[in-house]
Amino acid sequence: MLFRPNPSSGVPIYLQLMEQVKHNIETGALRPGEQLPGIRPLAEELVINPNTVAKAYRELEHEGVIELRHGAGAFVSANARKEQTEKLRAAQAMVAATVEKLQARGITGQEIRRLFEAELTKSSVTGGHSD
Amino acid sequence: MLFRPNPSSGVPIYLQLMEQVKHNIETGALRPGEQLPGIRPLAEELVINPNTVAKAYRELEHEGVIELRHGAGAFVSANARKEQTEKLRAAQAMVAATVEKLQARGITGQEIRRLFEAELTKSSVTGGHSD
DNA sequence: TAAACTGTACTACTGATATAGCACAGTATT
DNA sequence: AATACTGTGCTATATCAGTAGTACAGTTTA
Description:
The structure is a homodimer of 131-residue chains. In chain A, strands 1-2 form a two-stranded antiparallel ribbon. Chain A has helices spanning 13-27, 39-46, 50-62, 84-104, 109-124; strands at 66-69, 73-76. In chain A, helix 1 packs across helix 3 (50-62) and helix 2 (39-46) packs across helix 3. With 131 residues, chain A is mostly helical. The termini of chain A are far apart. In chain A, a hairpin with a 3-residue loop joins strand 1 (66-69) and strand 2. In chain A, 56% of the residues lie in helices and 6% in strands. Chains A and B meet through helix 4 and helix 5 of A and helix 4 and helix 5 of B. The structure holds a DNA duplex (30 and 30 nucleotides).
């Protein structure tokens, strides 16, 4: 479970933590229903702020990977490997494939990011122009 | 050529401008070799800062879409519709298809963004974990 | 060469995000 | 109920992308 968060990789610590938790669930190191380390202990272990762990946990809960119970703790979702995670896993595989193809065609990561940002915003723009 | 940049759509103005220029090249409104509007006049026309136009132009040059000649002006690249733009167009189509599929599966834009960020950073992280 | 155009470079301001610090609220165990 | 654990919420700080302001450098034309 323990890893070394790299603050200077440009990758947000909470995202690194999320990936780590997911990976541990996939490998079976964390079973459905099992309790995750508390926010404060884990934060102290990783030498990061508890709030950063809390954010990672909250995001994971939003993805349906874990379940947060106020006062009780954080637990691996019962159907973590079944529904939500499976869906995200498929999505992740699709994304990975696309990124891989793009990179193989010589498109830089920066370019890929721009393309996706443009595509995502294209769908979320409220409406047309006012005039 | 003229459009209304929407500062509150969450889409960077310089990106909107880039898309607009590309679109005009695709539709033939701007021909290869043709000179684009100057940075200052265009900025005044769009009621934005000249530097924002400059950034869009610089990015477009980096993509090979246009060519900047210091003191002379900005010109549509001779092979704008052939090589570079075609490549980016294909990439954009690929990205669009992936995003569309993901959204059809109920994945939110925010989730998609996270997935891509994770995937992109996964490729750029220096090494693995130390312990 | 001089003037009026062109793009370029540098610095500053603003807003959003990641992170951190501290106080609050719920749960479990005694 | 009390204590010690758990997650939650609010506020502050640092960093970065986007944007803006201003001064500089190259090109063209008269």
